[in-house]
């Protein structure tokens, strides 16, 4: 199993190209199931989760081709993926595949809406909490689906098609909103989604569905209206920039000091996080191509943060921010309101000498002057990158174990950091 070795203490200086968003690419790829036309997705990141989803879609009969790279292509340019779901051969998503990637449960919506039936394994819990799918099933039931749960599988049927309805989510859910959008696009009549997620990835999915012929208004607000159509067609769509990757590198620069331009990204995708970074004493400016992050001299100020659905501070940046706060001047209170168990990184950050205690849903971080490199273990995607952030500023050497978590969501992490002066290397299985 690969590991990453980091020697801390280098400032980051240079340019980091930001990839397409994992959490937009996944639902967009799943939307290919809604049509017998070809869906072409550009700026798709090269990630383990994307490859896994290609396998899962392939199991349903989706053909894929990836554009080969041409000489002279930018090494970081995202890949172009052509997905063709003309011939669905299987409407079952088996446990062996769904259990490896939660988001793959969302295939239930397009399969049901287009073919009238879907059998999809329940995804189960994961390292950040129980993460049920009750709201997703509620949305499909509102649209007229008959849902049965048998031997760990959700069996959803709508032999006469889905019917538009009002769906009022009791809590903001990104996956629930994706599922409702996809299903309602092919339902008879109109659907109103209330308390919809406003995340940029929801807007990206809606934009792509609109290009495919869906009639959707209000994406990006809490109320989305969908007028169902009988058929969707193929389309070409470019995946939006990854706001979590953007925020992660911004926090890395705030941590080490230095001056980095994050290219191909937009501040409006993560304004709440950038505002918090400015309060820590980091300079954030917008350039023609992205966002410039600088911190010279001066310490890191402690700031309190509460995670919230978009446009609030994202839960997917909570661990990274905690990494930064371990070296802040003073005490920071970090409250997690989205997932009940998303603090697995606390005990790992303590290995660097960080002072963090938990009180219910809040982590209290007393900043320390120095962190010291240590062997640590990645537990989930965002937790693992918070360890990288700590390691970049720690004295001496850190070995991050279980790097496959990082490969799920960060494209060429070590290359991007090394290009800015960090000392980072991947140790392949058996090495070092
Ligand atoms: C998406 O997960 C993201 N995943 C997560 O990113 C992200 O943390 C999360 O949204 C919140 O922003 C992808 O986009 C692939 P939710 P999702 O439904 O859709 C509860 C990462 O690191 N809930 O918005 O699964 C749920 O337990 C990942 O990239 C129910 O109770 O999250 C949570 O407390 C991790 N019942 C809250 O709602 C349901 O049926 C929000 O979850 C559904 C959700």
Descriptive tags:
24 strands; 432 residues; four-stranded mixed sheet; binds ligand EPZ; single chain
Structure overview:
This protein has 432 residues and is an alpha/beta fold. Helix content is 30%, strand content 25%. A four-stranded mixed beta sheet has the order 22-23-1-24. Helix 6 packs parallel to helix 7. The longest helix is centred in the middle third of the chain and has 14 residues, at 243-256. Ligand EPZ binds at residues 23, 26, 103, 129, 131-136, 171, 173-176, 315-316, 338-339, 381-382, 409.
Spatial strand order of the main sheet: 22-23-1-24
Largest β sheet strand count, sense and barrel closure: 4 strands, mixed
Strand content: 25-35%
Radius of gyration based on Cα positions: 22 Å
What's this entry about, in short?
The chain contains 14 helices and 24 strands. By secondary structure, the chain is an alpha/beta fold. A four-stranded mixed sheet has the order 22-23-1-24. The protein has a four-stranded mixed sheet with strand order 2-15-17-16, covered by helices on one side. Strands 4-5-3-14 form a four-stranded mixed sheet.
């Amino acid at each position: 199993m690969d590991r990453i070795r980091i020697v801390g203490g280098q400032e980051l200086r240079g340019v980091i190209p930001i990839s397409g968003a994992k959490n937009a690419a996944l639902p967009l790829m799943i939307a290919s199931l809604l049509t017998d036309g070809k869906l072409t997705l550009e700026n798709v990141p090269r990630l383990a989760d994307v490859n896994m989803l290609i396998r899962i879609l392939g199991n349903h009969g989706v053909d894929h081709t990836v554009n080969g790279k041409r000489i002279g292509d930018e090494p970081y340019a995202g890949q172009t993926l052509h997905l063709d779901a003309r011939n669905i051969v299987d409407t079952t998503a088996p446990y062996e595949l769904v259990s490896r990637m939660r988001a793959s449960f969302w295939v239930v919506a397009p399969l049901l809406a287009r073919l009238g039936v879907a059998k999809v394994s329940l995804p189960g819990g994961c390292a950040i909490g129980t993460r049920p799918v009750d709201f997703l099933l509620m949305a499909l039931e509102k649209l007229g689906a008959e849902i049965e749960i048998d031997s760990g599988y959700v069996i959803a049927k709508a032999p006469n098609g889905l019917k538009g309805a009002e769906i009022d989510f009791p809590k903001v859910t990104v996956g629930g909103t994706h599922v409702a959008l996809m299903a309602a696009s092919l339902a008879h009549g109109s659907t109103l989604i209330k308390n919809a997620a406003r995340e940029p990835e929801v807007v990206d999915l809606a934009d792509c569905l609109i290009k495919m012929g869906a009639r959707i208004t209000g994406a990006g607000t809490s109320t989305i209206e969908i007028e169902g159509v009988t058929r969707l067609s193929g389309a070409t769509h470019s995946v939006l920039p990854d706001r979590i990757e953007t925020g992660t590198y911004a926090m890395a620069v705030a941590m080490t000091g230095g001056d980095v331009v994050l290219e191909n990204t937009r501040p409006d995708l993560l304004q709440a996080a950038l505002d918090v970074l400015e309060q820590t004493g980091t300079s954030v400016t917008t350039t023609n191509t992205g966002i410039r992050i600088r911190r010279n001299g001066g310490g890191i100020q402690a700031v309190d943060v509460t995670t919230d659905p978009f446009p609030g501070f994202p839960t997917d940046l909570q661990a990274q921010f905690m990494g930064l706060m371990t070296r802040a001047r003073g005490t920071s209170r970090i409250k997690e309101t989205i997932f009940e168990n998303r603090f697995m990184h606390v005990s790992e950050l303590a290995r660097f000498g960080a002072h963090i205690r938990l009180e219910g849903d809040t982590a209290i971080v007393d900043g320390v002057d120095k962190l010291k490199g240590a062997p640590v273990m990645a537990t989930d995607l965002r937790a693992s990158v918070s360890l990288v952030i700590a390691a970049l500023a720690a004295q001496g050497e850190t070995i991050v174990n279980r790097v496959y978590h990082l490969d799920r969501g960060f494209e060429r992490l070590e290359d991007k950091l090394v290009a800015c002066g960090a000392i980072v290397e991947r140790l392949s299985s058996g090495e070092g």
